[in-house]
Design brief:
Blueprint: E1 2-7, E2 17-21, E3 24-28, E4 45-49, E5 54-57, E6 80-84, E7 87-91, E8 104-107, E9 112-114, E10 119-120, E11 126-127, E12 130-134, E13 137-141, E14 144-145, E15 150-151, E16 155-159, E17 164-167, E18 182-186, E19 189-193, E20 196-200, E21 206-210, E22 214-218, E23 223-227, E24 230-231, E25 241-245, E26 248-256, E27 261-270, E28 275-278, E29 282-283, E30 293-297, E31 300-304, E32 307-309, H1 311-314, E33 332-334, E34 338-342, H2 347-357, H3 367-377, E35 383-384
Parallel strand pairs: 1-29, 5-35, 10-17, 24-28
Antiparallel strand pairs: 1-34, 2-3, 3-4, 4-5, 6-7, 7-8, 8-9, 11-14, 12-13, 13-16, 14-15, 16-17, 18-19, 19-22, 20-21, 22-23, 25-26, 26-27, 27-28, 30-31, 31-34, 32-33
Protein name: Kelch domain-containing protein 3
Pfam families: Kelch_2, Kelch_KLHDC2_KLHL20_DRC7
GO molecular function, one term: chromatin binding
Length: 394
């Protein structure tokens, strides 16, 4: 296991949502510090070719929003994306004015947006929830509901074949309410870890809480179970990432406001042994961060975007007013970088790394290898994808 490369020049995004479809990663929306997040415009879509490590900007990003707002999602953050077949389903999220409860679908084959009509008990609009796929169901848990002004307390699912929403009657003791947690499906279980909750103090003030317990939902009976895991358990955190590789769950990075710390560590949970393990990974890792995307494709994991403490201001933060918002521009810096973790680096990949390390590029005679070296180590320059989208047909 090794961090094999890092590249600048990708989309600078925070709280975006991303999925893998074949060898491509599609990332949707998010925000960048300093941008106007109250303005309504079309959600931008960027595509990463995980073979060439090159980014493109999909032309649907530039469709006029108010001419297509019946089928186009507005740009947002704190939403989720899941893939079912060749279609990506976007749900939830918000801009600085409102959150959204409309389902949107992006067809990766026809390159167009639709807003499928859904029936049933449509959940209240929210952000900071989780969504994952089990069979033909999109499972939605947690998050913060804009209308009620509270954390969501229920679990719901959308049947993607019938486009019908249902609430799950609770069985067992459910996890505490939370947002910006992670959830992954392994076999017939949905595992939930981390997130930000709240606890009432003796002065009746709501304080943030960070739980590092692991829970799973038995998807055959829709019953919650608390996992009494062993090993080195990660500290509670929010805005981290989780992914599945070889039937194991991995947790990366995140933030805990109670200790004012960002993380760049990675943990592995093995459901078969019920053991957590902190991983020691070779190579140069990403810096401490939160709100990044972390997507696995084959043996590789692609980490991109997110935000970190501003290194220029970090040293000066001791003299900044303690009441200063931890999200202010001067204290955080957003990222446009991408890091690639390889669980099983090939001899070819290791050779390319050695060529770069020892400045041997000029001695490489094969044109294809020169191209691969350039793709693997040269900064990105986002290009516009063609052909044009099909949304003009409605």
């Amino acid at each position: 296991m090794k961090w094999i490369t890092s590249l600048e020049g990708g989309p600078k995004r925070v709280n975006h949502a991303a999925v893998a479809v074949d060898h491509k990663i599609y990332t949707f929306g998010g925000y960048c510090t300093g941008q106007n997040s109250r303005k309504y415009k079309s959600m931008d879509v960027h595509v990463l070719n995980t073979t060439t490590f090159r980014w493109t900007r999909h032309p649907v990003s530039d469709l006029p929003y108010f001419e297509n707002d019946d089928i186009l999602p507005f740009k947002r953050y704190g939403h989720t994306a899941v893939v079912y077949g060749n279609k990506v389903y976007i749900w939830g999220g918000r801009n600085d004015k409102e959150s959204c409860s409309v389902l949107f679908c992006f067809d990766t084959e026809w390159h167009c947006w639709t807003a499928p009509k859904t029936t049933g008990s449509i959940p209240l609009a929210r952000d900071g929830h989780s969504a994952c796929i089990w069979r033909n169901f999109m499972l939605v848990f947690g998050g913060y509901e804009d209308d009620s002004g509270t954390f969501a307390t229920s679990l719901c699912y959308l049947d993607l074949e019938k486009m019908h929403w249902s609430y799950v009657p609770p069985k067992g003791v459910a996890p505490s309410v939370r947002d910006f947690h992670t959830a992954v499906c392994i076999d017939d279980r949905m595992y939930v870890f981390g997130g930000r909750g709240s606890v009432q103090t003796s002065n009746y003030v709501e304080d943030e809480s960070y739980c590092n317990d692991l829970w799973y939902l038995d998807l055959r009976h829709f019953e919650w179970h608390h996992v009494c895991a062993q090993g080195v358990i990660p500290v509670g955190r929010r805005s981290h990432s989780a992914f599945v590789y070889n039937e194991k769950m991995y947790v990366f990075a995140g933030y805990n406001s109670l200790v004012e710390k960002h993380y760049n560590d990675m943990y592995e949970y093995n459901p078969k042994t019920n053991i957590w393990k902190k991983l020691s990974i070779t190579g140069v890792p990403p810096c401490e961060r939160r709100r990044q995307a972390c997507i696995s494709v084959g043996d590789k994991v692609f980490v991109f975007g997110g935000t970190s403490p501003n290194p220029i201001r970090k040293k000066e933060s001791q003299v900044i007013d303690e009441n200063t918002d931890e999200n202010t521009d001067e204290k955080l810096v957003d990222h446009s970088d991408m890091f690639v973790l390889d669980f099983n680096p090939s001899l070819k990949s290791l050779s390319l790394i050695a060529v770069k390390k020892y400045n041997l590029e000029k001695k490489v005679a094969v044109r294809n290898l020169k191209t691969e070296i350039s793709n693997m180590f040269s900064p990105n320059c986002i290009t516009v994808k063609r052909p044009k989208p099909n949304n003009s047909a409605g």
